[in-house]
Design goal:
The chain is an alpha/beta fold. Helices cover 28% and strands 16% of the residues. The protein has helices at residues 33-43, 65-74, 85-94, 107-111, 115-123, 147-162, 166-173, 187-199; strands at 23-26, 51-54, 79-81, 129-131, 134-136, 203-205, 210-211, 225-227, 240-243, 252-254, 257-259, 269-274, 280-284. It has a five-stranded mixed sheet, covered by helices on one side. Helix 1 links the parallel strand 1 and strand 2 (51-54). It is globular. This is Bis(5'-nucleosyl)-tetraphosphatase, symmetrical.
Amino acid sequence: MIFQNHAVRTATLSHFTTSAMAHYAIGDIQGCFDELTALLGKIGFNHGTDTLWLTGDIVNRGPKSLETLQFCIRHENSVQIVLGNHDLHLLAVGCGEGAPKRSDTIEPILKHPDGKKMLDWLRAQPLLIREGSRVMVHAGILPQWRIAKAESLAREAEAELRGKKYVKFFSKMYGNKPAAWDEGLEGYARLRFIVNAFTRMRALTFKNELDFDYKSTVKKMPPYLRPWFKAPDRQNLDRTIIFGHWSSLGYTNADNVISLDTGALWGGQLTAVNLETEEITQVQAAGGIDWKSFAK
């Protein structure tokens, strides 16, 4: 595999906005590479003219994590990703600060001759991408963060990921506390909250505290919780936020959000949306793992 001297991803990707191209986004792949290939064929994706956003969790639990990561690296000029919690898990395991799980399918990456180079490439990817009126993150943006604030916090965490002390960052990354944002947060507690909000958030309490236990549908959500994008005090309604992560939510296009994780890993569909026309295209997953055995 050829690795180029890739530039660090920046917040604004205005060079993708020419009229001759189509711009797509696809939800969580998690190593379901055959479904990705089928979906790109179905939409007629052209790497020479089109651009593709991936909502993160490109690897893990699906059968072809290595092939999916290699695809993203090979096509980095047309494919942009944001980091998801499973991508961060791969990086943590890769540097010895994460515990492998029996549901992991990342070993072929870790044992590959180019494994270190692939992990270095992945570690350089962003937590947030913005292009004009659109923003992409893996899980969501905290309601009280305006887009400019979210970008600033993403850059703050990305600097640690790309810095010389990244191993220490991963040693401090895991944990559910603090549960609420405070501008006065410092050090690794601050970084942990930022990463958790961008990569693990689904439901919030009415005090905008992160709740990591609830993973089911909005309809079944208990009355003391609400989806992050339903908070009445939301400060980021001026952009369309594209995200994945919440497979039980499924495809959603409302409240200035587009949710794209439609459970390909669990035997659902892999979904693409044309960001200009908002037309969706799906392929049915070939199999799927037992979701009762492995809570996402």
